[in-house]
Design a protein that fits this description.
Blueprint: E1 3-4, H1 8-11, H2 20-31, E2 40-44, E3 48-55, E4 60-66, E5 69-74, E6 78-83, E7 89-94, E8 99-102, E9 108-116, E10 122-129
Antiparallel strand pairs: 1-9, 2-3, 3-10, 4-9, 5-8, 5-10, 6-7, 6-9
Length: 149
């Protein structure tokens, strides 16, 4: 589900059912959007960014913002929980090889987190497409892989 940046009311959905620390982190993300949609950026070129998410049991990747068209693939499968910018909390069981494509129009985005609820590592690959309707958000220093010496 994408959110139009112009629809600020939708961004301020009721998060009162969320734990206080999760709601506070979500509020901070709105003022400082996190463009890192994975744990590690594996590769980047003029067309794509390739990310991996590796979450140990109980581990969580914090709120991040999707603005580019992308797809993710569940490598390992597992059970996860997401808090989504519309105020919903979603629990879902992923199967190995499951893939989902997401597309965002101009000024649309999605913000969410992901926690591993299972008892084994959960792994996802995510590929973002830089030629989307929105420009790629700049990445923080130190995120890009260092060139081999």
């Amino acid at each position: 589900m994408a959110l139009t940046m112009l629809d600020k009311a939708a961004e301020k959905k009721d998060t009162s059912q969320w734990a206080a620390d999760i709601a506070a982190e979500f509020a901070r993300e709105a003022g400082n959007p996190n463009p890192c949609v994975g744990s590690t950026l594996l590769s980047e070129n003029e067309r794509t960014r390739v990310w991996i998410i590796r979450l140990a049991p109980g581990e969580r990747i914090g709120f991040h913002r999707h603005v580019l068209d992308y797809f993710w693939t569940s490598v390992s499968g597992g059970r996860g929980r997401q808090h989504v910018h519309d105020g919903t909390t979603v629990e879902y069981t992923y199967v190995p090889g499951e893939t989902r494509h997401e597309t965002y129009g101009k000024d649309q985005f999605k913000v969410h987190d992901l926690q591993n609820l299972g008892d084994r590592e959960m792994v996802f690959m995510t590929v973002e497409f830089k030629d989307s309707a929105n420009k790629p958000m700049p990445l923080p220093e130190g995120v890009r892989p260092q060139a081999a010496a």
